[in-house]
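Journal club side-thread
Mid-discussion, someone asked how the predicted structure for our own chain would compare to the paper's figures. Pasting it here so we can look after the session.
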Amino acid sequence: GLANFTVVLGSEPFADVVFQLVSSDEAEAVVLVPTLTFTAGDWSVPQTVTVTGQDDFQDDGDVAYNVTVAVSSGDAKYSALASQKVNLVTEDNDVARFIVHVASNETTEAGATAAFTVVLGSEPFADVVFDVSSSDETEGAVDVSALTFTAADWSVPQTVTVTGQDDFQDDFQDDGDVAYNVTVAVSSGVDDDTVQYLVQVSPQVSPRNEQDTVYASLPSQDVQLACEDDADAAGVVVSGPANVTEGGASGDILVVLASSPEAGTLVEVDLHAVDESEVMVEPRRFVFDATNWSVIQVATIDAQNDAFDDGDVGTRVVASASGDSKYDVVVSEVAVTAVDDDDESHFIVGPISQNTSEAGATGAFTVVLGSEPFAPRRRRRGSERDGGCRLQR
């Protein structure tokens, strides 16, 4: 802004009278025309002095200064006059603040990023350092740990990028997103972890910056961010062989969790075969926690050799979880076929011990089944010549 005052002589001079006008603080204000000259012809006409305030970009408050009006002249009486000072004040228009502008505030566990910028609202008297950290680095991580502004770059915005982290947990709560905050704390050289994942911007007093107490005493600013959960659904992944054969080699049932349970929580997974007359699984229980949830556990599956000619039988191995509220309703299964080991339905007749005779000599032979029957079996006894010999049991 501008300030004006006038200067005029009180009497006609015998020689030109020249005034030098000097500001006591040219960082705050300068005199637009630094000299005034009065002559015998215009000594009674007031001349205006214009003082222009200077924008120093610092929040230094209203500053008092003065303009000295010093006289010189060939007129001895005027040249003997003492200087005069005009007291003025430059009203400050700068505000110590920092501006956080959020370009995007949602990250995802798939790695999508959010970004915000930080810039000062006025030139600082000392370097201003922002310590940047996330309140929950399992949800969002910042790409820088500190931002520094100086008197040279205070007006240039600096960007903080926050990247969503995949925590492998089913974070689903209503909309599935997890809120967190990033704190940006002004320390001006003092290390202090005050950046959370809100963007909380909290200034702090610094020994290096005692003269810039305005920045050090600014209140916090908060910017809310959220990390969108990805497909980390609570689940049990079970896989195994398509077939196991009666009397053949064992197979492997592989069990692992689809996502991490919460820290300190145990998830028990119980295995059982729907038809244990066909297949058996051992062991029947595995325990998972946040440290081993992704480690594959192995159970053994064997077909039961039942001696029946029942053909190939399909069944299932079921895994049910418990111990964590998200896992209590989880059930997974894998299909498996018990392959019959060729127990064909047939009977075997052994050789006769000797021929029979009309004199009453006897002969004997055996009959045996080739597989276990589902019910008792009877065979009709007789011969091609029932009149010639008789079968006895």
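Post-session note: The two ends are 132 Å apart (CA to CA).
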